[in-house]
Automatic annotation (TrEMBL):
NCBIfam families from the UniProt entry: rsmG_gidB (TIGR00138)
CDD domains (alphabetical): AdoMet_MTases (cd02440)
EC number in record: 2.1.1.-
Coiled coil: none
Keywords of the record: Cytoplasm, Methyltransferase, rRNA processing, S-adenosyl-L-methionine, Transferase
PANTHER family: S-ADENOSYL-L-METHIONINE-DEPENDENT METHYLTRANSFERASES SUPERFAMILY PROTEIN
Stated role: Specifically methylates the N7 position of a guanine in 16S rRNA.
Entry-linked Pfam families: GidB
Gene name tied to this protein: rsmG
Record's protein name: Ribosomal RNA small subunit methyltransferase G
Sites where the protein binds S-adenosyl-L-methionine: 58, 63, 108-109, 125
GO MF annotations in UniProt: rRNA (guanine-N7-)-methyltransferase activity
Gene Ontology CC entries for this record: cytosol
Similarity field: Belongs to the methyltransferase superfamily. RNA methyltransferase RsmG family.
Length: 213
């Protein structure tokens, strides 16, 4: 049943992509590997988060958010700033009959202002550097909640800077695993909210990405 839903989502994505650009992946084989299998590599990390609401920030076509919503059963919010993508996601949710998923059309920073501390798990794939993800996720998370970052190869410089920013925004690296994914690799890093941020978050909308900490 779950696998059927995962496949149905992928076929809806491939179909929608013919008229609106929501992903650069267009073949079934690539989609099964680089969207479905890849998304599920973070399932253990998600299951390690405290019970509660989960958000996939910068979800695009719903990866990894929709496969993780299907497999975990968590209450899931799919967040994207592009209204057209969110409209397509709403169609996916209704076609798939997902009772536990909903969408937010807007910027992550605005969600952070509207629903501070309301999530126990956040995922982000192909969105930003880790330091930026930490800044965006911290205000959304309750203490003990986790940000799960899907990365490929990560330069030491990015990790070092993430460590500095994590301290500023009250987060700490708690898990770091690397998986094989076809010819590529996927590294999944989880950061836990351990303290109040040392600065007021979210900063003005756009600053996290335009003027990173
Ligand atoms: C490269 S896509 C990745 C999509 C998906 N996570 C994946 O891995 O296939 C990044 C997505 O993040 C969204 N995005 C970027 N910045 C955002 C922000 N500040 N708030 C909400 N969505 C954002 C974009 O609209 C885009 O759909």
């Amino acid at each position: 049943m779950h696998d059927e839903l995962l496949e149905k989502h992928l076929s809806l994505v491939i179909e929608a992509n013919k008229t609106t650009n929501i992903t650069r992946i267009s073949s079934w084989e690539d989609g099964m590997l680089l969207h479905v299998k890849d998304s599920l590599l973070g399932l253990d990390a998600l299951n390690a988060c405290p019970a509660g609401r989960y958000a996939d920030i910068g979800t695009g076509a719903g990866y990894p958010g929709i496969p993780l919503a299907i497999k975990s059963g968590r209450e899931t919010l799919l967040v994207d700033s592009v209204a057209k993508k969110v409209q397509i996601l709403d169609g996916f949710i209704s076609e798939l009959g997902l009772q536990n998923a909903s969408t937010y059309a807007g910027r992550i920073e605005d969600l952070g202002r509207e629903r501070p501390g309301q999530f126990t798990a956040i995922t982000a794939r192909a969105l930003s550097k880790i330091s930026i993800l930490l800044e965006l996720a911290s205000p959304l998370l309750q203490r003990g909640g986790r940000l799960i970052c899907y990365k490929a190869r990560v330069e030491q410089e990015e990790l070092d800077h993430a460590r500095v920013v994590a301290k500023q925004v009250g987060m700490e690296l708690v898990d770091d695993k690397t998986f094989e994914l076809g010819e590529n690799c996927r590294r999944i890093l989880s950061y836990e909210k351990v303290a109040k941020p040392k600065l007021k978050l979210p900063r003005r909308t756009g600053l996290a990405q335009k003027k990173p900490l």
